[in-house]
Amino acid sequence: MSKYFNLRVKPLVKASTQGSAFAAGDVIADWFAFDLPKGGALVKSVTAIVRGTSGSANTGRDFILFFANAKADGSAPGSLGTGNATADGTDYFNDLVTGIKLEATTDMGAASKGLDRVSLYTAGGGAGADKYSNMILQGRPSLTKDGFNTVYVAIVAGTSLDWDFATTVILRGAVTDDATVTIPTDAGSDDDPNAEFVFNAGDVVHAADDAVVGTVKSIGAFDTNNQPITFEEGITADLADNDVLFNANPVTLVLGFER
Q1: Are residues 61 and 156 in the same domain?
Q2: What does the DSSP assignment read for 211-235?
């Protein structure tokens, strides 16, 4: 393994929590597991790529990443609490490892038509508002499997403006046939939902009740009254007309490590 490496982690943000804004202190994503090569690794950088609100970028906002190890029996840390509500869990204190705050001031912004639909936050070890002291992540050595340990990350809204992951991509017509691969969408009134600014190929789409719609294969152009989204496999969930579609992973973390 090289001295430096990146891990790309996509915590689950439940679609059922995305319909309204997250206030300061609210749970955005509960503990999400990822594999880290066994042995300690120094956190060198953190970048968060945050999808926007209805295809437009979120205003720069603070949020906090918490990292924890699995419990001694291999189970996940106790929940931080209900999504889109104040973090009030308790059964994780002995599993916490560290935390990183990404501040609104670290939102890099963008000017081009594509990049201005996302927010990009980045920070590294060192001093200053967008920096943090050197931190080591290491899973429980006793739980090493196939050369990896499980580490968990969670996201809590910070102290600035409310986070919002709303979307105007709405299903046109019910889906009950498991063989359905392509669905038409609009913004509710035969208008363009701009689905290409909300989803990319490879994104996992959920309905508002957390039903898994599927993984996006491609997104077609808007044509008169609908924009088609094609999925990699047939849609097995039963969906109703006018179901709102959400990106299950609106925050992508790119974690840079040194070994």
Answers
A1: yes
A2: -EEEEEEEEPPPBTTBEEEEESS--
Task: Please state, as a whole number, how many other Cβ atoms lie within 10 Å of the Cβ of residue 49.
Answer: 16
For residues 114 and 8, state if they share a domain. Answer: yes
Instruction: Report d(CA 132, CA 99) in Å as an integer.
Output: 9
Domain that residue 116 falls in: 4-164+249-258
- Please indicate, yes or no, whether residues 177 and 138 belong to a single structural domain of this protein: no
What is the spatial distance between Cα 9 and Cα 251, in angstroms, rounded to a whole number? 9
Burial class of residue 151, CB neighbours in 10 A (0-12, 13-18, 19+): buried
Record the pTM: 0.90
pLDDT tens-digit map of 137-181: 998 888 888 889 999 999 999 876 678 888 999 999 999 999 999
> Is 113 in the same domain as 225?
no
- What number is the average pLDDT over the span 68-86? 95
Is it the case that residue 129 has pLDDT exceeding 60? no
Burial of 141 (0-12, 13-18, 19+ CB in 10 A): exposed
- DSSP per residue, 58-98: PPP--EEEEEEEPPTTSPPPPP--SBTSB----TTGGGEEE
